[in-house]
Amino acid sequence: MKVFLDSAVASAWALPAGCPPVQGVTTNPTLVRQAGLPVTLDSYTGLIQAVADAGLAELMLQLPRPQADEALRWLEPLQKTAADVGVTLTIKLPCHADWLGCIRAVQSQKQAILLTGLSNPVQLLWAQSLGVQYVAPYIGRLATDGRDVWPLMQACVAVQSNGPALLAASIKSHDVLARLMACGAAAVTLPPASWAAWSSDALTEAAITQFEKDVEASQALKTTGV
User: Fold this and answer.
1) Terminus-to-terminus CA distance in the chain, angstroms?
2) Rounded Cα distance, 59 and 221, in Å
3) What is the CB neighbour count within 10 angstroms for residue 150?
């Protein structure tokens, strides 16, 4: 399963020891704004360079508006920058019919697409019919809305063999992460703080403490010949 960091703050991509390696970074206009950056083409090309500088392989980058002509103007320099620095680029677009013209324009440039905000199985079938590469449901938001997220996750996994791959977002606990791993999700995206926090565990720390105490206590024992 691929893991992506959900952040536009390049300094947050450096993870502590104990974290498994990550594939790359995902961003959207909200995360870019939270990083103190304007949602502009210059910011986006800068993020591609930052991903390369961090030694990461992929960037999933969300275009800001549904206008197809603007998407094509932005896409050319984004693709060129990604190719120049060796970063695999995926373009994120909302899973909504209002964005269909933009989706088709991006596809015309043979660019991989992730449809974000997918929330039900009809949207999943629509995404599959469009031939996009990824879908991204927001698990935490769906759960907060009172929905049982797991039938939709299972459906997403079921279509991965001949449809979009599942990139699960808005993961609020490591139990949810474990269930996604078990059901076969292709990828997940998490905030760097969650990935770092879950690389250790209180139970592991307690076991280590007990081992250390027992090592100390054992030194007081008299050794006997064997």
Assistant:
1) 49
2) 57
3) 14
Reference 136, options 179, 101, 95; nearest CA is 95
Is beta strand 134-136 parallel, antiparallel or unpaired with respect to 113-116? Answer: parallel
Question: In 3D, which of 118, 129, 130, 61 has the Cα closest to residue 94?
Answer: 118
Closest listed residue to residue 106, CA positions, set 136, 65, 167? 65
Q: In this structure, are residues 27 and 209 in contact, taking their beta carbons and an 8 Å threshold?
A: no
- Other beta carbons within 10 Å of 19: 16
Which tokens in the block code for residue 211? 């081992």
Which two three-digit tokens encode residue 206? 């307690």
Distance CA 65, CA 40 (A): 11
User: Do the beta carbons of residue 195 and residue 19 sit within 8 Å?
Assistant: yes
Asked whether 127 and 95 are in contact (CB, 8 A), the reply is yes
Give the percent of the chain with pLDDT over 90. 86
Looking at the DSSP bridge assignments, the partners of residue 188 are 3, 168
**pTM reported for the whole predicted model:** 0.91
- The Cα 92–Cα 114 span in angstroms is 5
In this prediction, residue 223 carries a pLDDT of: 62
Question: Taking a C-beta distance cutoff of 8 angstroms, is the pair 202, 17 a contact?
Answer: no
Which architecture does CATH list for 2-201? Alpha-Beta Barrel (3.20)
Note the pLDDT of residue 225: 52
Whether 111 contacts 91, CB under 8 Å: yes
Residue 147 has pLDDT above 80, yes or no: yes
Q: Domain boundaries in the chain?
A: 2-201
Cβ-contact 17, 200 below 8 angstroms: no
